[in-house]
Each structure stands twice: as structure tokens, then as C-alpha cells.
Amino acid sequence: MTTHDSPVLRVAGRPVGRYVTRPELPDRLSPRPYLHPVTTLAGTAVTELSPADHLHHLGVGVAVPDVEGHNFWGGRTYVRGQGPTELDNHGAQRHVAFQLRDPDGFVEELRWVAAGAEVLRERRTVAATELTDTAWALDFTFALTNITSGPLSIGSPATNGRPGAAYGGFFWRARKEADAPAVFTAGAEGEEQVHGTRADWLALTGQGSWTLVFTGATDATRRDPWFVRTAEYPGVGSSLAHDERLPIPPGDTVVRRIVTVVADGRLGRDEAAALARKAVTQ
Fold first, then answer.
1. With 0-12 CB in 10 A as exposed, 13-18 as middle and 19+ as buried, what is 55?
2. What is the largest CA-CA distance in the chain?
């Protein structure tokens, strides 16, 4: 059912994703709009919402653990020299309006608010496109503008002292199954080999006959390393702040675009690469 707060994305008339604009969540989860459930064309769910292992993982969306000290990721904050710490520093992403809404996508304006003030304004563009009879693509672009009078920077636990934890940006929490999913790129395979690397595309394949192929669709996005988890939980993100903090001067905008192929079946390298190319060029 499509409501004002929860539009449904459709591909060839079939529902493939529900977008929740105004979730009712506690502050410590950093409330924000998200896509869930996202499904393959055959109806297999490929996202999770607030799983027991990480209650602040909310399907597909944008989550950043450190915007000038404000937590827009949810959960604990990594403090240098102290570790994960419960802080009262959570922000929220608030839906303002849809500039465009169609069955296959939307353009949305959001306000990132923390400590009673807006720190970022976001323009989010989401589109769903049919690729084949068994695959479709989710095209997700977000543009973050510093609307304050001073400089802002985006950080991650990695830039705050926790090696290997450069999460923050576009993030997809995939479904958890009895066995961990496989992950591979054109030149590497397995979490240890893929995590923290730059690759034109990255594939996650589940035991339940599904595959997600993530592609950075702009030069700036392709420069961001991938954040990958498979053993602890299944999740893939694109790291905005991997080696150092990402500065956003007043009035400037950071734009990233990730296109994700959502396919039935377990794809191999050649199939994944072909669909990744098709998804970003059609």
C-alpha cells in the first residue's frame, strides 16, 4: 500500500521496495528515512530492519557516524582512546518534501538536524529500473550541502582511531542467513580481501539465491573504498571518510551516486560485471 509517508517503488508493475520517510524510532538509533523491505523481482527480501545484532541498521539509506561530532549512524560513538561509548549526540534526518514522485522513483529534500540545529541539507534521488527478467537496478544519489556559516567535516570510527571501521555514507544492510554471504570484486574475493579496497563494482551473493552488485557511478564515488562485512553480519557501504575526515566548507555540496543491481540467483563474476555495466549506462 502506498501512503504519503511510505511510497512503494515498482519495476514493471511489481513492488520492489518500500520507502519510509518518517520512521518512529528512539533518538539513539539516529532516526532517518530508509528503504525496507527491498526485494528481488521474484520477491526475495534482501534487506533487514533493526536486526538484533545492530538495531540501528535500517535497510538501505545514508548513515554517517560523525558529522562534526554528531552521530547520524545510530548506536554508540567511537571515542579516540576510549572506544565505543554511549553519548547523547544523535542527530536525525527529517523528510521535508518530495520534489518528484513516480512509481519508479522520487526526488526528496531532507534536513539533517542535531542539537536543535540543521547542519546539512540533502537532496536525495532514487530510481528503480528494470534490467532483465530477473534483475533490476536501484539508482541512489545523495547530495549533502553544508548550510551552516562555518566549516563542517565528516568522520568515521577509522578517522577517530579504530582501524578498519571507515563506515559512513551509503549503507545497505542485507538479509542475514544461516551462512555468511560470499563477496567478490573483479579482482578479489572474501571479506578480508575486499574490505577497504577501491573497485568499480562489488558483489554480495546470498545462500537464498540472490545477488547484490554495488557500483560507484561517479568518479568521486569510485574513489571511496568499500566497507564490507560478511562474517559478523551482511552489510556493504561506500566510505566517505576512509583515511581522513571529509571537509565540507560552508555552502559546498558533497555528491555520491551508487547503483545497485538486485538480482535473483547467485551470479558469477562475468554476470555481475555485465549487469553492473548495464545498470550505470542505460
1. middle
2. 52
In one letter, which amino acid is 38? Answer: V
Is the Cβ–Cβ distance between 272 and 203 less than 8 Å?
A: yes
Quick: pLDDT tens for 230-257.
999 999 999 999 999 999 999 999 999 9
Q: Do β-strands 14-20 and 117-132 pair in parallel, antiparallel, or remain unpaired?
A: unpaired
d(CA 126, CA 41): 18
Query: Residue 238's beta-bridge partner residues?
Result: 226
Structure confidence at residue 187 as a pLDDT band (50, 70, 90): very high
CA distances from 148 to 112, 117, 203 (A): 11, 9, 37
Q: What angle do CA 72, 153, 248 make, to 5 degrees?
A: 115
CA distances from 165 to 113, 150, 235 (A): 24, 27, 13
With beta carbons less than 8 A apart as the criterion, state whether 110 and 232 touch.
no
The pLDDT tens digits of the residues spanning 61-111 come to 999 999 999 999 999 999 999 999 999 999 999 999 999 999 999 999 999
Cell, residue 69: 561530532
